[in-house]
Amino acid sequence: GPAPPRGLTAEAGFRLRLASVGKRPKVAFPFPLARAAATMRGAVVVNYPVGGLRMVARYSLTPWGRAARRGALAAAALLVVNLSAYGQKGGNREDDTSPLGGLGVAGRNMSAAEAAPYGAPAGQGGFGVWAVNEKDLGAASGLRRGDIIVAVNKQPVSGVGDGALAIEAEIEKAEESGGVLECQVIDTDKKSRAVKVKTAKLGKMGATPKECAKTKAVIARGLSWLADAQQSDGSYRNATNLGGNDARVVMSSLAGLCFIGAGNTPTRGPYAQNVQKCMEYVLKTVGQKEAGGFGGMGGMGGGNWNQENWQLAYAPIFLSELAHHHQDTRLLGKVKEIIDKLIANQEASGGWAHGPGGPNALGYVELEIVSNWALSGIGMAKAHGIKVPDAPLGKALDWIEATSPGDGGVGYSTRPGQVFGDPGRTAGAIFAITRLDGESWGFFPKMKTYYSKNYKDLAEGHVSPVMHVLQGALASHAMGAAEYKKWWDAYRGYIMVSRWSDGSLLSRPSKESLQMGRATDLDMGACWTTPNLLLAMLLDAGNFKGLVGKPKKAGGGKPDAPVAPEKKAPQVTQGKRG
Asked: What confidence score (pLDDT) does residue 39 get?
């Protein structure tokens, strides 16, 4: 539950309850733990030290589809791997918590019933502070772990709805002029006190990211963080190795797009070498099969863990965009190779799975969101003159429409119970169709109408809310300036509250993640969440030639001159999360 860490101990306990496993499971932990023990009756208990906090997470799994016993073990593996993410640079918190952008603290909303035992006024909820960066404004002003923020600038924090966003709204007001944010808190002794935080002066929020000085400052710090987080080989890695090579190619592609969106190429800009390293890593690595698959987890639960379609979808988006800015004969040759593989990997139904090879460990094949990224990559490749047969594209569009109940909303798949409208998947399909220059498709107007009515629910997207928020930004921008402004008005606070002290942009709880105790955003960490949210803000910066607008054929020619020595943007010394 979301109660704050009142009883502070040296360890945190996590229990995974495997409903359908009747005997002691065998679980291999590919990361260092203080203690790991499996107990009888299908319960796995892992003790892990987390900065003096005592945390308990309980997971109850109900597998579905074929091979239920395999599904339970596979799902358990996915739940287990997020435990090692703690302490990751710019990464995850002690649990699924929300940052408070600009203060350097993170925590959870608390209802009146949850806050009452700790001294909150009758009927008053609040925001429980679970983590504090000792080098940031909140700690310097006196906010401490275990505090419950019950009011900000005399405005009660009810604990109902998204209290973090309500606090963020007050933070933004104070940051316009560098004013003082007054927090009324209940401490661990159940005593009330006032904490006054002098905020940074960042100016007023603009109507769009391009018009906003504050957003530009957030983007600049995010780019600096991305440059610092890049590995020497050009890759980005999460602490758990979740997704393995597939995830690294995806994250390097997203980061490369962010650097391009800020005006950098392999030979131009303060992050020229970072773009170059992203390019070299993706060119070298995309399509390579990793031993064990999916970060070495292949075969666990007896299912198919091939996830290669993710990297095959994201890589051509990055490389095709880069080919508009940088002449290197390798780029479009690699894009064609990837697209041929994507077409070969298309399922007979017309959709795409995580990867080829049949049903995965949970018993399913296609999922619509992969189809969106695959079609986006294909569309951006076609803009460079790369030939793609019409038949596979027609099948793909028919399959996407079949996931909808008919209202224009695109669903999870065509399987029973998964044909429903979802704004994030609908947004991804809209963006893909615009990259394919397919706006004349008869179902397209229905998708736009559905999305325009439901875009405010993007942050509740399945598994990865930040990916859904990004797809919303891409679709909105493709639909026009007015739609993108509507998206920005709805998600500016979501992004700004995600700021962390080191410049990264972090995950936030969703209804699903709070219920299930996990999410891809939390598992993958800041190297995933930061570029997704940065890219969403960079779409109107005026530097993209293929990702936005109507791209013209480009690319090929001789390689550019050698890359100049790297010149990074000045970095501000900031505390790191944890």
From this structure: 24
